[in-house]
Amino acid sequence: MLRSVLLSFTLAMLAAVAAMAQTGTIKGTVKDAISGEPIIGASVRLAGTALGNTADLEGNFEVAKVAPGTYELIVSFLSYKTDTVSNVTVVAGEITTVNTSLFEEGTQLNEVVIGGIRDRASDQILLGERRNASIAVENIGAIELSVKGVNDVGSGLVKMTGITKVASRGIYVRGLGDRYNNAYLNSMPLPSPDQNRKVVDLEIFPTTVVRNIAVSKSYQPEQFGDVSGASIDIFTKDPAQENFLVMGVGVNYNSVSTFKDFTTNQDGASDYLGISGDRREAPVAVDHKGVVRFDNLEQDPFKTNFGRQKINAPLDNNFNFDAGRTLNFGQSKLGIIFSGSYRNSYRSDFGPNLILNNLQVAETDFYRDRYTFNTNMTGLLGTSFAWNENNTVHANYLFVNNSSNTYTESLGDNFDVDDRETTDRLRLRSRYLEVRMHNVQASVDNRLSDNWKVRWGGSYSTAYTDEPDRRELSFVVEEDVRDVGTISSTGLGGSQRYYQRSDETEYYAFGEATYSFGHPNSQDKRNRLVMGYQRRGKDRDVAYRSFQVQFLPGSALLGHPVDINNLQHVLTDEAFANGDYRYLDGADGSRQSAATRNIDAGYAYVDLNVNSRLSIIPGLRVEKSDQTVEYRLQGSGFNDPFIQAKVDDVDFLPTVSAKYNVTDTKIIRFSGSKTMTRPNFMELIPVAYINENLQSTVGNPSLENSSIYNVDLKYEIFPTGSELISFGAFYKNIDKPIEQVRSGINYISFFNIASAQVYGLEFEFKKRISSFFSSSSKLVNGLVFDGNLSLLYSDVDTDPSKFKDARTRDLLSSVTNTSRPLQGASPYMVNLSLGYDDLLMKSSIQSSIELTYNVFGDRVYNVGTVGRGDEFEKSFGTLDLVLQNTWQSGFGVKLTAKNLLNPAIRLEQEAGPNATSGDEVTQSYKAGVNLGLSLTYRLIGK
């Protein structure tokens, strides 16, 4: 398949050359009529066409693929009078030069007024902001995300330098995982409905609501201090600057799943939309106080059964709808945008799933078939009201609903109870997970004078993760048989119904004042003092409950073969009434916990221009936090008092950044800071929580905050307004980092270890191929090559002799390797992209094609203990191809081919000191090739 795709790519290039239309080009500059300064981001468009562009950092613009003829060129930008240049004549094969100057309107407007929002979805504008910024920030805009065929924020981040995604564990930045990163929405903190993760799963945010994603790897005082990897800021679409309507629809084919057998449980009222309804609800509230007895009932008290359905998986589909409108009220302006989207996917994976002991011999050996139906539904309402040039109000509401309905069949051996010679064990699990978030934001910008401006506002969020009615059954079957077996009430997993819900509420308030001082008419001598206060509060409640399915002696079901394909006719109301099975409530007081965290922070920094080339930004953040977790130990009563675990600290977090402009296009940046990280709520609770993989996680109430020291150095070159070459180096020293340590097969806990170090190199580039030649053809002019490379070294010191606490020494003494890389850290990461942004070379069609490849090095997935070697996620590469065309009529088509190499995704356990064999595969599967087609239509109104 790869050979066919590459051949098609080559033929498309050749066909484009053969069909090259004889068109012309308009080039020129846009400058301020008084000062002569370039107007970055000025809009340039041809009246009566869809052709246009924006001015780059030098004020230069280019409008290509213009059919011969005479046009009107309209040039505009915020607070400037629009200029219309008439009788612009375009000749085939020639360049027409048009230089224009704009005069300011009567009043200089605030930079945040709606009409002046730069198109931050454009990578060229974002690159310009990166060059001009005092601190190092990396951006990826909506346009680039679309060109690369990215559908969600999580997938977009891994296209950026030094960022990878570790399966089920979220985003890793420079080798640092979930606890070292922060997520923001429009610069306001995002809650995480997942009790085990600090950062919300960023894949739940579709790119249809995103303007751009900003990643700050260098800490700044206005950011919360529990960070060392990156602060990830998702900016939603700006309110409308024009009236528009966009509609889109798409389908996707997966080579492993689509049109093939698919096993599922369709029990919810609206599973297709990702809304379960009440069918999966327990007959008693999950947080109900007291043990529930199900005696003397004439029918099964649960509304769902243990049956399964087999269907033929259809094509994935997606829909999106965007609308925007602007309203003028004299000097005031209101912009409104609404964005809604829905997408789903059917995914299957098949492969081995083993747990090995220290001899590399299997303790459990299963072959797993897993089927998952995913949905994502999102709505965004954004408004911005510019009362006048000095006062603007912004408000946003975001709704996200994400669901996954997974059915798993595991066939194999559990060697502690099974006869490994003649029988297998078949484990069936049905798991539905629903994540929902509501986020409301408001902010106000006030310019009080030429020197003072303030910004204030806040946000309120609610989020929950609901896992209703996870059903598990275990059978003993003949070897390789999946249809008939005898119900087992022993062994790993057993049979049960499980419920869990986590609810989180978060509020945030802030106020920030900026005082500008120095020479008022010179940017080089203009300085800023920024002062701010932030308050953040979080409350979380977690409750879970399990009901064991118990088959009584003498039951007609126990020890007799049953039809596994028709379990809805086996575990029936009649069988329940006859006493063939019953439910045993395993609840006690430990099944509920609560947590709160309050953070008060004050910060200040000075953006000081020492001279025309050097700027320095010293700053300090003082952060007071109090965190309390309430829990009960296992076996406690429902009315027993809660035990409290507290972590209270005041942290002083200094930072300094510097920027030196070697020339107008070459910049050196430096940053140094102290940050910290806190234990997550669940890591403090010493109560066993058994997850869907049957692993028991027990927290540690003795955990302490970690201190982190960060240093960054970067050299950036901007050859043109759309090109970049960047070299970077970084170092991090973590004192008392919190690490996850596994003891035995399925026991996990958390401890402060001695120390960890991370350092590495980063390289990033974006170049047009034509820049390598003194003269080039039209074919070469459209080629763009960009990518990034990260090299990383990390080391974790878990030497137990360095700890006074006996419990810590005992657990860490079980760790096989006392020195190892950070969990999830890849020694190298590579992203490469080759694109052509003028494929058809026709003035009536905007066309592009892009081929992307990314690969990472082997990384530690699980830490080896009691003689087991570390388990590694093995390296694999991903190749994607995206082709899209947009016509002047507003109609667009996008074709995507993703994961063309379809590599095996593998986990391997390396041989420990006592192993009798070499490295062994513990998990392996293929995700399949994805082929997609999407259609869009954009209508621009008056």
UniProtKB/TrEMBL annotation:
Domain Outer membrane protein beta-barrel: 574-814
Keyword Iron-sulfur among UniProt keywords: no
Subcellular location(s) per record: Cell outer membrane
Annotated InterPro entries: Beta-barrel_TonB_sf (IPR036942), CarboxyPept-like_regulatory (IPR008969), OMP_b-brl_3 (IPR041700), Plug_dom_sf (IPR037066)
Nucleotide-binding listed as a keyword: no
Gene Ontology CC annotations of this record: cell outer membrane
Position of the signal peptide: 1-21
Pfam families in alphabetical order: CarbopepD_reg_2, OMP_b-brl_3
Predominant cellular place of this UniProt entry's protein: membrane
Superkingdom of this protein's organism: Bacteria
Keywords: Cell outer membrane, Membrane, Receptor, Signal
Full protein name: TonB-dependent receptor
